[in-house]
Amino acid sequence: MTTAATRRSDRRISPVFVGIAAVMGVAGWATWTGFAEQPGVAVFLFVTAAWVVSLCLHEYAHARTALHSGDITVGTKGYLSLNPLAYTHALLSIVLPVIFVIMGGIGLPGGAVFIERGRIHGRWKHSLISAAGPLTNVLFAVVCTAPFWLGALDGVPPAFRYALAFLALLQVTAAILNSLPVPGLDGYGVIEPWLSYGVRRQVEPFAPFGLLAVFALLWIPSVNREFFHLIDTVLGGLGIDGRDADCGQWLYRFWEPDNDVCLGS
C-alpha cells in the first residue's frame, strides 16, 4: 500500500503547475475582457504563462512516454507532476526559453528530464520518447491556431486574437527548432538510436553545445530571415496572418512605447 500511495503521489499535479495555469487563465480572461488597464501586461502574463505550461507539457510527454517504455524512475524524480522545479536543468528548461521569448520572440526549446535509457529496450521506443516533446508543441500549436483555420474568430477581441497568434508562433518555432537533427535537441534523439555506435561516440561531446549553436545561427541575418520566412509560411497555412503574430509580439513587449499600436490606441 505504501508503494501504491507513493506512485499516486508521483503522479499528482504540482501546485506550482496549477499556479502557473491559474495565471494563464486569469491573464487570458483579462486579455479577452479588456479588464487590464494596460492590455500589453495581460498579454505578457497570458503568453508567458501559456508558454511555460507548454514547456511543462513538453517535458511531461517525454517522461510519460519513457514510463510506458520501461523507465519507472521518472515518477520518483517528479517528472510526472508537471512541476518545472523538478527538472534536471530548470534554468535551461524554463528560464532561458522565457528569456529568448522576451528577447526575440523565438520559442527556443530547453533540455530538462533525465531518462534512464538503459532501462528502455528497442530503438523505436527511444525515438518515440524523443519525438514526444516536439509533437506536444505541434498539438499546442494546433489548439492555438484552431480558431483561425476554423474561421471562428467572430467576436474574438483583437488583443486575444493577437496573443493567440503570437503564442502559436512560439509553438511552431519550438516544434521546428527542436526537430532539427542537432545533437542535444530532440530531433537528434529521434535518429540517434539508428546511428552506429562509433558515430554516436563521435557526436556525443557536441551535445551540450547544440542548442547554443542553433541560437548563434539564428543571429545570422540571412539564416534568421529564411527561418522566419518558413515560420510565416507555416502560420499562413494554418490561417494566421503574419501581421496578427507581429501585433501579438508588439503587445507582449508592453514596456516598449506604442506597443498597442495594433489596437488603435
From TrEMBL:
It is a multi-pass membrane protein. One of its GO terms (molecular function) is metallopeptidase activity. The keyword Hydrolase applies. It is found in: Cell membrane. InterPro entries: Metallopeptidase_M50B (IPR052348), Rip2-like (IPR044537). The keyword Metal-binding applies. The chain crosses the membrane at residues 12-32, 38-57, 85-108, 128-150, 162-182, 202-220. Keywords: Cell membrane, Hydrolase, Membrane, Metal-binding, Metalloprotease, Protease, Transmembrane, Transmembrane helix, Zinc. Its cofactor is Zn(2+). One of its GO terms (biological process) is proteolysis. It comes from the Bacteria. Belongs to the peptidase M50B family. This is Site-2 protease family protein.
